[in-house]
Amino acid sequence: MIRLTNVSRTVTSGREQLTILYPLDLEVPRGQFVAIIGPSGSGKSTLLALIAGFDAPSSGEIRLDGREITRMNEDDLADLRGALVGFVFQSFHLIPSLTAYENVLVPLELAGADDAQERAEALMEEVGLQERAHHYPSQLSGGEQQRVAIARAFSNRPQILLADEPTGNLDTKNGARIFELLVSLNRHHGTTLMLVTHEPSLADRADRRITLNEGRIMNDDGPP
Amino acid sequence: MKFILNMPRREMRGSWRRLLVFFGCIAIGVAAMVSVRSFTERLADATVNEARALVSADVRVDTANPAQPNFRPLLQRFTSSRQVIDYTEIIETQTMVRPVAAKDVRPVLVELRGVQQQFPLHGRVHLVSATPFSHALLANQGAVVSPNLLSRMGIAVGDSVQIGTLTFVIRGAADRIPGSALNFSPIPRVLIEHDAVVRAGVTTFGSRVRYSWLFKTTPDGDRPLVREMAGEFRAQKVSLGLSTFRYAQEWLANSFANLEGFTGLIGISMLVLGGVGVASVTRVFIQQKVDTIAILKCVGGRNAPVLGAYLVQSLALGAAGAAFGLLLAYLVNAADTRYVERWSPLDLTPGLTWRALAIAGSVTLLFALPPLLEIRQVKPFFLFRRDTETRRFDRTQLAARLLVPLGILALALWQAGSFPSARSFIGTVAVTAVALNLAGSALIYVLSRVGTVRSFPVRYAIGNLCRSGNQTKAVLFAVGIGTLFLVSVRQQQVNFQTAYSDDLSTLSADMFAIDIQPDQRAAAETAFTTLGARDARLIPVVRARIVNLKWGPGEHRGTPQEALRRAAGDRRVSYTLTQNSSDTIVAGSFWSPTPSPRAEVSIEEDSARYLMVEVGDTMTFEVAGRRIDATVTSLRKLERRARQLSWLTRFDILFRPGTLESAPHMFAAAARGPAAGPERARLQNAFLESFPNVTLVDALDDITEIRNRIARTSSAVSVLGAFVYLSGVLILVGSIGVTRGRRLYEAAILKTLGARRLVLAKIAVIEFAVLGLVAGLVGSTASIALTWSLMSFGQSRTAWAFSPVVSATGILGTVALVTTVGVLSTWSVLMRKPLGTLREQ
């Protein structure tokens, strides 16, 4: 499902070259739940952003569902994300001018779904926010905002769900609820889930744990 | 598609406050442009419609000398021409009218017209009483007069007035009389029967009486008729004035060229100002929406639908702005109608509505597209970091930017209707844009090299202006361009007003007398002085006829025969030692102030052109049977309006003293009378009683009326100019809005570190004052170039004059305005508690 070959990422900061990810190989089969752990600055979020096609690697090749994405243009990548990938951010990244329901509706409309409204309503119900559907993000708690973000990520029934520290901005109780929601939706929809987390207890529930440190994979306890 | 239509609606819900400036720029831009177009179009329409009424005929033949042989039989022949539907004769002259009953009321100069039964051939005489005009009202020494004659003399319909030797009963008041120019002339009009004019004895020599034949033709029959008449007049050697309503139409159009030039500048200024405002707001808006755009791309948004959504939003705002602008234009035009008489309120026709929408759409598209294309540069990873990635060169964005000047040029051509004007306009704007960009770079360069400054506010303000992403150049650009137009419009307005007031101030007299006999000269001079008039001077009037013309070496157009044909007829000429102070010599040189037995003449520029004479030519005049060969030694330019108002004492042909003194003379007089009131009336009545044969012309009311009309028209135009100012402020608010987010955050941090509000206010004042000063200097300087080039290469008839006061006010005003708006827009930043801001970050 996901295959990375010799993928690295280097950025320029002022006059200096900063390597965030050193060349790495990684393969994640369909339906697997992978937890990525590691300290801050170890390259976890960058790895996820590269897989989602948000950013281009400095070297190497990334394949999603057999399609090579590193040579795709911005529009093709957008199409691919719309069809294949869902993403949940640590800081939610909901569109502040849209209601919770509309945030979920937008990816469906972008994909041209005929039943966009029905599906968005169903997803809002699935994350338990049907009563808060017409509230704006600023009127929702952190946990509620993240549930909206999860509903949005699942809106186009993606085969791959990437979650970048989805509980990082939440308290323990809300974090646990979000995690359970992600796991249950993952099981229910049969998606491949890659989740970045700092919490060992959450990582322990994954099928596989990959530890990153200073841009390198230090440990992978369940290679395919 | 659903997304493209739904997203703008949802975005507007939360962002409408931020987009108010966008809406305002379009609304004010459309309102101004529609008002300007409407103003000039209605002026042009009035010109066409009133041209026929101006002549009161399709073709008009006139002469001051009806005694020419063949005159009547020739004209009589044309009355049966197949193009002629109807014809009539009129006699016109200017004379004084006095009420019979009230002796202490000042006599009033009127335009007297004797008409026949068929008058008017075009238009209609509109009586104030709303009853239809009938020629019967004029029978048995009846008169129909302008209402202002009644109010000036304090009389009413039914009272009697003295005209020449006869008494007439006023039978009606008419506020519109065809054949009376554009009815802009403030001189009251009096209609009487055709033959009564002669009987009243007001057609004596020197009275400038005109005898006219008016012809009504079949549609477009005027052109063949005029051709036929001109040929026949030439063949028969008859000297007659020949005009059609088309000449009047052209003359009217030329009269308003100055005004059109000014309103045209307002129109195109609004176009660019509105555009700059739109571009500025869109840029800020897109900067604020980077996260939203990145999120949309993260969830599968391609560039096209995302860009499409924001484009639809901009166009929708543009359309709404246009609708509001139309409403605004309607209200402004209703207000203008109060100033410019007889204009109906703006008619919001489908054509005008579509045109306004087209303007709004074009401006929105042209100016919003380049900043909107920035959406293509937004990458999903912007949600993680912004600074390390290099921007990609976008050809589409470059093409869109290049389209802006081309689009402005096209719209300016459409608006200004003059390629040289549009070219100077675009050229100056482009140079100013480059100058502002360079000034911005220079400012940042200089400030970044300023050493350590002890004052914290100064140091921090310098830092704000220098740091990357600070928007210094963007604000400078918007404010500088705004200043350019604000100052240019003001400069043009000042030029426009100065031109008219200069014309009037060149008048050295407000009272004129004609027909003073040689033996009355000394007594008339003494009477003026003893009765309280100042600066009285008597000017000799000699009747002369041009009988031959010998061209000198100068370049001539036409043929000597044509020139002689044009020169035919009697003329009033004069002689003087010194040149009138308001005249300008445009060719040759005026004689030294000594008499000379060698005859020399100075000719007025337009007359010289008509007569096809140049300096060095010899003109042969016949004066009382004596032939005089006079050399043309100079051509003079007369002040336009002064010439119109003081025609009685100004002469197109002036002789050097030494030749005409022995010829039969009459004298005209010019003087400054007392201010309006009983004293002036007493002077005039006493003068007329002493010299009953003299016609006294009081121009004071005319001058006052013309001054008032200029002031009123100027006020109407100022309403249009106010749009430019309003738009400038909007642009400023929009530009400064760019930095509001950063200011909020920094102010919050500084407050937590112990900065007082006064310190923060000082930082804002210094920063904005510097921005205002640089933008004001560049914009104000560029306005000098813009107004000069518009005056030099455009259609304006007004001379360009640099006004240091306007430029200095422009610079200081920009500093004050930018500082005020800057500090006010920072006010909420100063007043806000830091915690709220920091929480939002």
Question: How would you explain this protein's 3D organization?
Answer:
The complex is a heterodimer of chains A (224) and B (841). With 224 residues, chain A is α/β, with parallel strands linked by helices. Chain A has a single domain (29-57, 76-220), classed as P-loop containing nucleotide triphosphate hydrolases (Rossmann fold), CATH 3.40.50.300. Chain A contains 7 helices and 10 strands. Chain A has a 6-stranded mixed beta sheet. In chain A, strand 4 (59-64) and strand 5 (67-68) form a beta hairpin. In chain A, helix 3 (100-110) crosses helix 4 (116-126) and helix 3 runs parallel beside helix 5 (142-154). Chain A is globular, with a radius of gyration of 17 Å. In chain A, 49% of the residues are buried. Chain B is an alpha+beta fold. Chain B is elongated, with a radius of gyration of 34 Å. Chains A and B meet through strand 1, helix 1, helix 2 and helix 3 of A and helix 1, helix 9 and helix 10 of B.
Short recap of the structure:
The complex is a heterodimer of chains A (224) and B (841). Chain A is of the alpha/beta class.
Q: Pairing-aware structural class of the strands and helices of chain B?
A: alpha+beta
As a percent range, the share of strand residues of chain A is 25-35%
CATH topology of chain A: Rossmann fold
Please give the share of residues in helix of chain A: 25-40%
Strand content of chain B: 15-25%
Question: What's the topology here?
Answer:
The complex is a heterodimer of chains A (224) and B (841).
Chain A: E1 2-13, E2 16-28, E3 33-37, H1 44-51, E4 59-64, E5 67-68, H2 74-84, E6 85-88, H3 100-110, H4 116-126, H5 142-154, E7 160-164, H6 172-189, E8 192-196, H7 200-203, E9 208-213, E10 216-220
Parallel strand pairs in A: 3-8, 3-9, 6-7, 7-8
Antiparallel strand pairs in A: 1-2, 1-4, 4-5, 9-10
Helix pairs in contact in A: 3-4, 3-5, 4-5, 5-6
Chain B: H1 2-15, H2 20-55, E1 59-63, H3 71-78, E2 84-99, E3 108-115, E4 126-127, E5 142-145, H4 147-153, E6 160-163, E7 166-176, E8 189-193, H5 194-199, E9 210-217, H6 222-236, E10 241-244, H7 245-255, H8 257-288, H9 290-298, H10 303-339, H11 350-372, H12 395-416, H13 419-448, H14 456-466, H15 472-505, E11 511-516, H16 521-530, E12 534-550, H17 560-567, E13 570-575, E14 584-588, E15 600-604, H18 605-611, E16 618-623, E17 626-637, H19 640-645, E18 653-655, E19 666-672, H20 678-690, E20 695-698, H21 700-736, H22 740-752, H23 757-793, H24 804-831, H25 834-840
Parallel strand pairs in B: 3-8, 5-7, 13-18, 15-17
Antiparallel strand pairs in B: 1-9, 1-10, 2-3, 2-6, 2-9, 4-7, 5-8, 6-7, 11-19, 11-20, 12-13, 12-16, 12-19, 14-17, 15-18, 16-17
